[in-house]
């Protein structure tokens, strides 16, 4: 058997010739097969070590895609078994000739080859990896090309300057001059890694190739060049940045395709960081101002998204003169996506403004733009950070109108969002300001026509009590909540019960027993059945807060009465409360003469269906 596996190891690559050492190994293997039993046993031991490698090699040519993929993922194991010479002379040519495969197999191959330097003999022979990776960099599937370029960038660092010019740069030139756009897009990602380590003559050729790709007829190539413009600029000498990169940046930022223009914006940020301050206004800012007003919202979105990086690159003077007006326009943009992206940068933008003019710029230019609900909510969600920048006095005066307007916004989701931020507002503005300006808003939400708002307002009250304390609740919130128990709208009366459910947990036993419980007990005679069964549920909820004397003397009689109610739901929840609080022996109680036979059946039927 070993003779067959040894042959499969050496004969799987038909395009490569076996070396004299390989032929000797095959001859010895044949001798083993026909030798003594001791030799056969020795062969069997070698057999075990070679078999897995033989299987992996065989799977490279298997018709099953999954088997080929598994074998590719273990390519390093095959290379180790073959040795560095046979990996270079047999395995790599075989892989180069079989590039036409399923995309997932090619993706795995491109990834593996990026870590193959040691397996081909080290940096001296790393150029042997270029042919298969060059082929992979030209395939149609984008993810495969990107992975091949990533591996090429990785192994470029392992080339000596001489090998870089002899082997790597010619590859880049071939890709850049390829007939298919796929190869030209791949070339764009390779200029930056080879440029710093080549001679001046070769550098000039590389710059020329990059200029050609920036004006390519195919939008996909221009897009790739635009995405790498900033990276390429970072490795160029400053004079060439001004003479070569700036014209390319201007051209790409004016391209007919918005996908090219938006990528040029990102490059512009990188270029701005490379230039001295005195050159920025003339060379970069006109193009960036144009991008901030581009007809495509996607380009304006990119400007907004990169605004803090741009602000850092251009410095305080240009920020004050150019970026503040541009930022104002982005905050007022007609597209919600652009406004949202700009709003996300408000905190960082304000923090980075010059200290001597920060407050003036914020109050005069930024806050008036905070008009749209999404933008204002974003400001409020970062209120603690905004407070650090402009101070609580300015914050309270400037944001109060926005808060009030949001609290009454026609869209209930906006109202819901501001409710969720109310505890944060309360913490920043303080109890006195809250009582004076915002308390009425919180109470108004309790009678909102949308249930989700009323529910959120109830939870909001609980969080406010946790922040300001039970004494504040007793003097401020509780009287207003209990006053709603007499409202003509039964939904508002039910909201009173929901508030008591939440507030009893944070107000404690004394306030619950003295102030809340009497109101709940009084509501047990409400004409609306929905209110009465919510009274039963409320009593069950606040039961653990009450002491045993109140439960027996006040709660128990009311639940007994509700348990005989004509409404089936009221009866059900009363019995559930009785059972949940263990006020008395329920089985004995329900079989007393207080209950009719139908009530007993209803009780057992209801509890058999309850979870």
From TrEMBL:
The keyword Translocase does not apply. The chain crosses the membrane at residues 589-609. It comes from the Eukaryota. Keywords: Membrane, Repeat, Transmembrane, Transmembrane helix. InterPro entries: ARM-like, ARM-type_fold, HEAT, HEAT_type_2, PP2A/SF3B1-like_HEAT, PP2A_Regulatory_Subunit_A. It comes from Sinocyclocheilus grahami (Dianchi golden-line fish). Belongs to the phosphatase 2A regulatory subunit A family. PANTHER family: PROTEIN PHOSPHATASE 2 (FORMERLY 2A), REGULATORY SUBUNIT A, BETA ISOFORM-RELATED (PTHR10648:SF4), SERINE/THREONINE-PROTEIN PHOSPHATASE PP2A 65 KDA REGULATORY SUBUNIT (PTHR10648). HEAT repeats lie at residues 52-90, 129-167, 206-244, 245-283, 284-322, 323-360, 399-437, 477-515, 516-554. Residues 316-374 form the Phosphatase PP2A regulatory subunit A/Splicing factor 3B subunit 1-like HEAT repeat domain. GO terms for molecular function: protein phosphatase regulator activity. One of its GO terms (cellular component) is nucleus. The keyword Calcium does not apply. This is Serine/threonine-protein phosphatase 2A 65 kDa regulatory subunit A beta isoform.
